[in-house]
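Translate structure to sequence.
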């Protein structure tokens, strides 16, 4: 309406997908620097989080219920297609909690948790 062009925020420059990937690669290479060489692969890496007050135990049912209570009714569904109302109104807390703890403890998450749908610009 104002005659101004829409900003290109979030768009990566390049005329082809390969050029855009190269742009990202160059950006992160500058950002992160060169790859370091490992002199002693058996060297013990110290845990820097020992002194922090971070709970890395399995999730409790109380923690799960707090998160569940914070869900807002009417929000859009995620990639799984499940609306927040289902989580709030159905009583399958134990099943969800077991699934989350399995992912945490065994470092084995469902494939769907890595699913990301890419939407085209209108």
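Result:
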């Amino acid at each position: 309406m104002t005659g101004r062009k829409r900003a290109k925020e979030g768009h990566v420059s390049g005329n082809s997908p390969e050029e855009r990937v190269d742009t990202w690669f160059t950006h992160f290479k500058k950002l992160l620097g060169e790859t370091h060489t490992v002199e002693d692969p058996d060297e013990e890496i110290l845990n820097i989080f020992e002194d922090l007050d971070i709970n890395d135990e399995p999730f409790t049912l109380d923690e799960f219920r707090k998160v569940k209570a914070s869900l807002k009714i009417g929000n859009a569904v995620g990639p799984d297609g499940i609306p927040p109302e289902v989580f709030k109104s159905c009583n399958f807390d134990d099943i969800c909690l077991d699934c989350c703890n399995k992912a945490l403890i065994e470092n084995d998450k469902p494939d769907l948790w890595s699913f990301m749908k890419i939407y085209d610009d209108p």
